Amino acid sequence: MTGKPRRTRVAVVFGGRSAEHAISCVSAGSVLAALDPDRYEVVPVGITRDGGWVLHDGSALAIEGGRLPEVTDGTAVSLVGDPAGRGLAVLDAGQALGRLTEVDVVFPVLHGAYGEDGTIQGLLEMSGLPYVGSGVFASAASMDKEFTKKLLTAAGIPQGDHVVLRDAGGAVCADPDLLDEPARERLGLPVFVKPSRAGSSIGITRVTDWAQFPEAVATAAAVDPKVLVEACVPGREIECGVLAARDGGLPEASVPAEIRLRPGTDWYDFSVKYVDGAVDVDVPAQLTPEQTAAAQEMSRRAYFALDCQGLARVDFFLTTDPETGADRWVVNEVNTMPGFTPTSMFPQVWAASGVSYPELVDRLVASALHPAGPGQAGPAGG
């Protein structure tokens, strides 16, 4: 008589030091609920806002009554740096007492700095642990909007007009020449002022009058000293998911979805995304077959241009070329760890493509444990 096979130990890591701490917690709550307890032994690991790693019970990871979840305390743990350890150690007053458990794979459900930007990916590489998602380079390049745009442009993928402001914090925000007149005329109004390395619309301001500009830069610079000023691209907001193939073939692209703001809502900000719900989503988007194919193909191109692995969500504006009248697809962002909240677009587009939420999580864990095919190679299988 044989016993049950050992369950795969998955460390789900969430929270973190970024401004997207709460959204990471909400995403992790959904992932934890989707992992089949008969197949997976789950180790929830929360990272506090000041960077402490703690064991978490996996509860209270939802937005309730406008209250955002947060990792606060718990049993302190640390990742074992030696690849032979492959696990977590319990800490007491900063001293390791011993390994808590070996870990087979890590699911870093972290958004923003110190999680989606290549930092934790580098830590996991050094620890020899497989992990879900893109590697160090793709994570860092996709997180930094300046370099996302440079790499996509090099691959022939259209970008909106923009200006990069470096070291934009401090007294420089009050400089009236922070953006010169030729640049203002070229960009026009409105513009979006945003941190170069952030997400979930945190720190972004829609500027409709240049008098608002210094304050908008200060708001963005409080999140990241490198700030982007982007021209508004009028058009439909389309999002498409990319997922590593099961058989090692080319990554698959989901059906696209469209975000439609309700009357009175100016743009897709944090409250609209996660609190107010003042948005309608069409899944799938009402596109022609040719438009759908174009979105899927450009999503895969963007995925390869940034050397992504495992998964990505590619966000577009579908606009019209003023000279030819033809469709013009402009990539806005590439997200290497898109939101996994119940209302997040990535799970929705895959559900509409025939991949349920639990199956989606299964595939991501499997692609980390057994990397194969284009865009899937990596030292730790990330």
Characteristic key phrases:
382 residues; 17 strands; 4-stranded mixed beta sheet; Rossmann fold; D-amino Acid Aminotransferase, Chain A, domain 1; alpha+beta; 3 domains
Q: How would you explain this protein's 3D organization?
A:
Strand 12 (236-243) and strand 13 (252-253) form a beta hairpin. The radius of gyration is 21 Å and the shape is globular. The protein has helices at 21-34, 119-127, 136-143, 145-154, 181-187, 213-221, 270-276, 289-305, 345-352, 357-369; strands at residues 8-15, 40-47, 53-55, 77-79, 87-92, 95-102, 105-108, 162-165, 191-195, 205-207, 227-231, 236-243, 252-253, 257-261, 279-282, 311-320, 327-335. The protein starts with 7 loop residues before the first strand and ends in a 13-residue tail after the last helix. It is α+β, with helices and mostly antiparallel strands and 382 residues long. It is built from ten helices and 17 strands.
